[in-house]
Design goal:
Chain lengths: 112, 120
């Protein structure tokens, strides 16, 4: 299976400051079609997951531009340029290049 | 507006069966793959199964293979998950998600989920 490892698992952040989450895959996530199906999801407390970023760096509809994704191959990063109170929650990376689909363990973002 | 509404969750004894449903609206259901993802209490996300838009292709996590069956009724815009031989470790909130498909692969919309508890 394609193991997804996120760091850190917890990220206390001051409001208005940046946050960064890393996601590393045990194998390359480049699909045979040339795309890399790495996405980032946000799960606010008591809510279902919400798509933020797809194919490494594409923001989904309605996602604020303070969220950005980058990376290639096996190493990927989600950045929040200035954390707001509504950003509190757990963030997951997910790969959909290969079956089984796999998720990172989740990174909890909280306000200091 | 895309909406996904799961139902069918319940308390069931180990070894029992349950069928979950996911009613979809706001999009042409048959044009999209669909998936089930579960989340055990206090834990992370675990992909369970995916089905293509036509229903002709399915994939399963090893943890449920041979026990769970994903299916869909495109005339009813409904996705199903038949769960047999349930175990305590299947206890989780089960959510359906739309797989954007059309040559792309990511889950763009998610339902709220339905709770399955396996316990005697």
């Amino acid at each position: 299976d394609f193991v997804m490892t996120q760091t850190p698992l917890s990220s206390p952040v001051t409001l208005g400051q940046p946050a960064s989450i890393s996601c590393r895959s045990s194998q390359s996530l480049v699909h045979s079609d040339g795309n890399t199906y790495l996405s980032w999801l946000q799960q606010r407390p008591g809510q279902p997951p919400r798509l933020l970023i797809y194919k490494i760096s594409n923001r989904f509809s309605g996602v604020p531009d303070r969220f950005s994704g980058s990376g290639a191959g096996t190493d990927f990063t989600l950045k929040i340029s200035r954390v707001e109170a509504e950003d509190v929650g757990v963030y997951y990376c997910m790969q959909a290049t290969h079956f089984p689909r796999t998720f990172g363990q989740g990174t909890k973002v909280e306000i200091k | 507006e895309v909406q996904l509404l799961e139902s069918g969750g319940a308390l069931v004894q180990p070894g029992g069966s349950l069928r979950l449903s996911c009613a979809a609206s706001g999009f042409t259901f048959s044009n999209y793959g669909m998936a089930w993802v579960r989340q055990a209490p206090g834990k992370g996300l675990e992909w369970v199964s995916t089905i293509s838009g036509s229903g002709g292709n399915t994939h399963y996590a090893d943890s449920v293979k041979g026990r769970f069956t994903i299916s869909r009724d495109n005339s009813r815009n409904t996705l199903y998950l038949q769960m047999n031989s349930l175990r305590a470790e299947d206890t989780a909130v089960y959510s359906c998600a739309r797989d954007v498909g059309a040559g792309d692969h990511f889950f763009d919309y998610w339902g709220q989920g339905t709770l399955v508890t396996v316990s005697s």
